[in-house]
Amino acid sequence: MKFEKELWKEKLEEKLLEKFSVTLKDASNFEVYQALGETVISFIARDWYDTKQKYSQEKQVFYLSSEFLMGRALGNNLINLGIEKEIREFLEEIGIDYNKVEDEEEDAALGNGGLGRLAACFMDSLATLNLPGQGYSIRYRNGIFNQFMRDGYQVEKPETWLNYGDVWSIERPEDEVIVTFGNGSVKALPYDMPIIGYDTKNINTLRLWEAHSIVDLNLEVFNQQNYLYATQDKTLAEDISRVLYPNDSTDEGKKLRLKQQYFFVSASLQDIVKKFKKVHGREFEKFSDYVAIQLNDTHPVIGIPELMRILVDIESIKWEDAWEIVKKTFSYTNHTILAEAMEKWWVGLYQEVVPRIFQITEGIHNQLRAELANLYPNDIAKQERMSIINGNMIHMAWLAIYGSHKINGVAELHTEILKNRELKDWYELYPEKFLNKTNGITPRRWLLKSNPQLSNLITDLIGNKWITDLSELKKIEKYIDNEEVLNKILDIKTEKKKELVDYLREVQGVEVNPNSIFDVQVKRLHEYKRQLLNIFQVYDLYNQLKQNPNMDFTPVTYIFGAKAAPGYRIAKGIIRLINDVAQVINSDADVKDKLKVVFIENYRVTVAEKIFPAADISEQISTAGKEASGTGNMKFMLNGALTIGTLDGANVEIAKEAGEENEYIFGMKVEDIDALKHKGYDPRYPYNNTTGLKKVVDALIDGSLSDLGSGIYREIYSSLMEYGDQYFVLEDFENYRKTQRDINRDYKDRITWAKKMLINIANAGKFSSDRTILEYANEIWGIKESKI
Ligand SMILES: *Cc1c(COP(=O)(O)O)cnc(C)c1O
Prior knowledge:
- With 788 residues, the protein is α/β, with parallel strands linked by helices.
- 48% of the residues lie in helices and 14% in strands.
- The longest helix has 27 residues, at 29-55.
- The structure holds pyridoxal-5'-phosphate.
- The site of pyridoxal-5'-phosphate has 11 residues, from helix 6, helix 24 and helix 25.
């Protein structure tokens, strides 16, 4: 977009006067933020409309996801429009600090972690690639909770991003629909967010549904619908879109959660069918030529029986024909193999909440059973295993696989595990349905926006094509022996570390040495991600430094950031443990200037943008086989951090792209874990036979550390010593500690280190979500670029 200063000035003044009765000179930062947002919307309005018109004629993908972890929009939108620098300068001229204006925006935090952030990166890539696609989700009034610390324990406070309005969403009452449950109906009111791609006129859409009581229903819609129960308590209706469930990788089998899922999926499918009919009438045989629907994990899988309901009950299509349409329309992404994350609904609950959908689900189940009985007449066990309804539970993953034409994992290793282990029966039945789509991240937010210094250096060296073709980064490899470039990379890292140091001083009042190694683990707190292994190593290092003060050692700052699901006791205990160890270490004069531990509060997208560019070391230490992909690992790599990691998820591909010699790979592989499990793992063995480990583990219960009487340290201790150390923390400890020592030694040779940084950056191209999205577009969705 071309920046015309006079036009912007005029528009901003107009908005400020209209909305707040102020002028640019006396407007507050918040008022300037609001006016800027509204001005952006008015300047893109025509292109947005034109994009919608254009896409309505073509095949589109609809990305159904219960989460979109968007973060802030203002800076990203201005950068993608190519006017951020101009706006910054223009505001500066009139004495307004653009950074302060940006800080007025609340994150749109409608997600828990990786899965929701992936959906957000995909939106950016779809728009940037001019691909006809739209996201659908819920407009949660309260996104992921805000985290505070009290006595080193996590305290949750409701997140309230909508309290002062949301400049980025446009209410679309003309598109409201009714969603009917067993006990009544609610109104779904859509809000559209523009998705502004980089350097393109196309504007894509994210449509978020808000639940309302039908009492304040528009009468015309009311009369068109034939539903049983006409009224319902307003607050009960609005509860549906009230709050995001704060669990990451755990299934919450609650009634309200099922209602949320059906609510947004039914609204979205009604919307999709309505739009299809507007262009193609009742030619449903063409439906899948124009509509592709991606199911982001099992949360929206209820869409499969819902589309059957719409086609069979409302559009009077024969069941068999409807089933063929459904299968050609849906595809499903599997995000995890953790048992506790496998979504299953109790039949009684499902039947109560969505009775008609239950009948249809049963119909699908019976059809599958008949096919299985035919295929495997002598293997009743297999028929049972693959049943959608089994033991009074409805298995959403099975429904997803049966009703989709493509099923993908999110990294090569993960997809192989699905094919050979978790979904083996299904892979044998439908080998043609399975494929891999390794996750990616958008280079716009995670490099161009978050690290302008490194972006500028790269552009100076190889031009700016990398912004939309990240494989271009490979070209910086020719500077591998150029000391000037290597020193610039090191200087930029130091500059970004200083920026993070300033943030930590301002927000948390802690002082950090920017010349220490920044070793960072930021991600949701989960036992499989093994923050416990990290903090054990830190505590052991502390013990060693106390004993051996003259040990050859480069100062390190261990940085953590993580939210724990509010009901996940052990995870909350580990947060307390990290803060406890931090307090012990940070207040001990003996290790001052050597070792520091910082827990960054309320980890979220906006803080992530400051953390990734400042990291020297990326901690990706999950138990092998447990992390499906990871995307934080990619953000670190792109910003020149070296990975200390297990061969898990996309770490495998990161090490392959950059070369294992440029990362710090350690620990058991999937096969090693299988072998050890087979042999029988006894955590007491590493506990007794690893120098220093006993002291660390015992600190949980011998009074060296304190959980303030909550008893949670004893539970952590038991999970290791009595319940078999399921995540092999003790088994991997020695190897991890050794690798940490290697890092500490290697960091000293700054030029050799900078070479490794450069190689990581140069080989991060594969991990652009543009690459991922093009693969989905070509191999799953069958959609093509469509520029306005
Ligand atoms: C990228 C990202 C994640 C995912 O991190 P992983 O290390 O892949 O689990 C979670 N939360 C936020 C805020 C992110 O930006």
